[in-house]
């Protein structure tokens, strides 16, 4: 069920357990309830006690989160994270790395040629 305000909710005469949402429009909301700072609220009718029980508030509809408000979030800024993602596979020696490969037998090659051991180039 929906109601425009607390008075409309209180005017209902439920005979069984029901849920009522106080909708938010330009002129109405749930702020007549002292426990609701702003926005809408949902209430349940308890026939055993003949009373309304607030079960939810919808203030979060007005919530605007900022990066700093996140608990346990990263210490990096969004710009730093975006830059890291953009540079995830950027290397200063990319031209050298692009020359690395392997032979049909799975042996390491550089620019298509076998890589000589360093001791092969020393004059011993």
Low-confidence stretches: none
The gross shape turns out to be: rod-shaped
* Number of E-state strands: 7
For the termini, the CA-CA separation is 93 Å
The average pLDDT value, as a whole number, equals 81
Structure, described:
The structure is a single chain. The chain is an alpha+beta fold and 124 residues long. Helices cover 15% and strands 22% of the residues. The protein has 3 helices and 7 strands, in the order βαβββααβββ. The protein has helices at 6-11, 78-86, 94-97; strands spanning 2-3, 19-22, 41-46, 51-57, 100-102, 108-110, 113-114. It has a 4-stranded mixed sheet with strand order 1-2-3-4. Strands 5-6-7 form a 3-stranded antiparallel sheet, with no helix packed on it. Strand 5 (100-102) and strand 6 (108-110) form a beta hairpin. The longest helix has 9 residues, at 78-86. The termini are far apart. The relative contact order is 0.10.
Secondary-structure map:
Blueprint: E1 2-3, H1 6-11, E2 19-22, E3 41-46, E4 51-57, H2 78-86, H3 94-97, E5 100-102, E6 108-110, E7 113-114
């Amino acid at each position: 069920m929906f109601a425009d305000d607390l008075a409309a909710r209180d005017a209902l005469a439920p005979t069984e357990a029901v849920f009522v949402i106080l909708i938010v429009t330009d002129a109405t909301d749930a702020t007549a309830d002292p426990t609701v700072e702003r926005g809408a609220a949902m209430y349940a009718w308890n026939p055993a006690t003949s009373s309304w029980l607030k079960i939810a508030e919808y203030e979060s509809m007005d919530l605007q989160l900022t990066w700093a408000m996140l608990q346990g979030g990263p210490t990096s800024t969004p710009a730093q994270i975006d830059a890291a993602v953009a540079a995830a596979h950027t290397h200063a020696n990319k031209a050298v790395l692009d020359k690395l490969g392997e032979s049909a037998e799975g042996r390491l090659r550089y620019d298509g040629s076998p890589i000589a051991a360093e001791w092969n180039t020393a004059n011993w």
